[in-house]
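Box S1 | Example of a co-folding query
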Amino acid sequence: MTRIAIYPGSFDPPTRGHEDLIRRSLLLSDRLIVAVAVNVSKQPLFGVEERLAMLRTAVGQDPRIEFVSFEGLLADFARRVGASVVVRGLRAVSDFEYEFQMALMNRQLHPSLETVFLVPALDLTYLSSSLVREVARFGGDVSALVHPAVAEALRARFAK
Ligand code: PNS
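Box S1 (continued) | Returned holo structure for 4'-phosphopantetheine
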């Protein structure tokens, strides 16, 4: 049986933390679908296609990984692609309540879909896309936190 996992998120932009989680997720799955959510309530900095392109560049080619976007409920998307596992990163206590709520709601909507939480590398624990955006917006150096292509995209976006 092929075990399909989904790693969903906004990835606005993808960070070294996301890359770390993608690599760790491959230990749990035969196929990993990295899924960029389209209809999140937040106004994204990058369009969906830009985020997918950045992910592809940052992670590189691997026949086990697919990068796609999805609209609507994650639970419905998981059914459509035949995934049995959702992977989420758990960085700090502050993530816990939101992640717990989301995992329970997804179970309500899709009882056989399991959510698995992975802990990122220690040096990436306090990293988030929103902090990266904030630092880049004011010209700070994010080169240690994101792939060079993402750093360049941020520079270009905020140079405007
Ligand atoms: O990177 P993020 O912003 O923390 O990812 C959140 C995401 C995209 C995984 C979550 O908002 C989501 O699953 N959105 C799809 C819509 C949905 O299913 N909402 C109900 C989840 S309980």
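Helices lie at 16-25, 48-59, 74-81, 93-109, 129-137, 148-159. Residues 8-10, 37, 40, 73-74, 102, 105-106 surround 4'-phosphopantetheine (CB under 6 Å).
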